[in-house]
Amino acid sequence: MKKGILLFMLCGFALVSQAQLQPISHCSTNNVSLTILGDGSCMISQQEDEMGFYSCPTWEVPAGSGKQTIFQHSLWFGGLDADDSLHLAAYRFGQIGHDYWPGPLKTTNATIDMMTVLKYHHIWNLSREEVDYFIAHHGEAGYEAPEDILTWPAHGEGDYAPDLAPFIDVDGDGVYNPEAGDYPDIKGDQCLFYIFNDSFMEHGESHGKQIGLEVHAMVYAYDAPDDEALNNTVFFNYKFCNRSTNDYHDVYLGLWTDWDIGFWFDDYVGCDVQRNACFGYNGYPADGTGEPIAYGDNPPVQVLTVLAGAYTDVNERLGMTGFMYHNNAANVNGDPTDAEDYYNYMQGLWKNGQPMMYGGDGYNSGTLNLPCKYMFPGDSDPDNIGTNGIQPEGYGTNGIYWTEEQCGNTPSDRRGLASVGPFNLNAGGTQELDYAMITVWKNESLSAMERKGEFIDHIKTLFNNGFAK
């Protein structure tokens, strides 16, 4: 397996000042190079060189090109307790504070102590090659196992949950012991595992009430040079544990992305309702005007697709239940500023509580006055799922559908939110989410926009088949 192509880095925050620390973890596997922070987000990393600080790309594709498709990507989570009081954690840029911190929570009172935060201020970074080599050679004289196998956080101590990171229990005693041959149960050809929570401190970003949320995150990818779609995809698996005594209802997950397809000020967004996907793409045929970060001709499309969302009460898994974008502004359809704003957006509502409307910019949508759940779906919603079964007036007339192009929007800096919900998360309960980030390129006959459906379908098939290659 080759090294040096897919780059994962861990950035954290000093526990008192919350100042950003330097990246400390690297790994590689395919055509994407990305930056992961210990609070579960992906964002620009500041690194120091001989001239001071410079920014390295978040989602660099192709790896080593200096060009990126995403500036920031992060997790939102919110729901109501038995008294219908909102509890919410979210992250965008961390400029005013943070809602997530490293480590698990005590099962007795949903708290975490300073020493445990320090202990889990780490991302466990392993390749399939390293794990397979350990399986074949552990116990042999002279073999030194990777530190991240030896320290794999399989178990919490004291009041923390006894079972945390997944592992293969070779001797069947229920205890992780690499000396006995036990090893991490990782996904993909390269895997990062880390744990974070929302309850170490008050929420500085969203100002929401603490949830008591513990998140087990696994980010993984495959070395697949003969499979173009898979070689341009990174997967996320989140397990959500409610360590509080609250039963939460009307819970929503939000996957928030600040798309930057090369040059950041000429982008569009859209979604594919049938495929549970949203995407950012260039608003003009060529990206930028010759900037080093710009792709120029034939820029890629960056897709996010929900592979399997949270479980419903009938044990089915939700897909992407909504998509909307907001502007880089302070108006009613601009950046969220408090917990209610974040929660409204996850429900498909604007900051003032008004439902998103089909057409136009989703807020001032002309005369249709038709509430909807999916913004800029194009022709991907023939069953009118997003409009509660009502076909919008003029849908498909003369080949016109609701897209940014159809609206005549000026390409700009786009921020979009894919939502999953509502669902329940009871005290002591768990939920799960799987999604993929796919970068799509043109080929000799089709544009990236024309190929994105094929890429999404292929990745979904691989996921559903357990990645049998």
Please explain how this structure is put together.
With 469 residues, the chain is mainly beta. It has one domain. Helices cover 11% and strands 29% of the residues. The chain has helices at residues 114-119, 128-137, 147-150, 228-231, 339-346, 404-407, 448-464, and strands spanning 10-11, 33-34, 36-37, 42-43, 45-49, 52-56, 59-60, 70-80, 86-89, 101-102, 124-127, 167-168, 183-184, 190-197, 213-221, 233-242, 248-259, 267-272, 277-282, 286-287, 296-297, 301-308, 322-326, 415-425, 430-440. Strand 20 (286-287) and strand 21 (296-297) form a beta hairpin. The protein is globular. The chain starts with 9 loop residues before the first strand and ends in a 5-residue tail after the last helix.
Summarize the structure.
With 469 residues, this protein is mainly beta.
Q: What is the count of distinct domains?
A: 1
Parts with pLDDT < 50 across at least 5 consecutive residues: 1-27, 44-54
* Sheet/helix structural class: mainly beta
Number of beta strands: 25
The shape is: globular
What is the helix fraction of residues, given as a range?
Answer: 10-25%
Average pLDDT number = 89
Proportion of residues in β-strands: 25-35%
- Number of contiguous helices: 7
Please give the alpha-carbon distance between the first and last residues.
15 Å
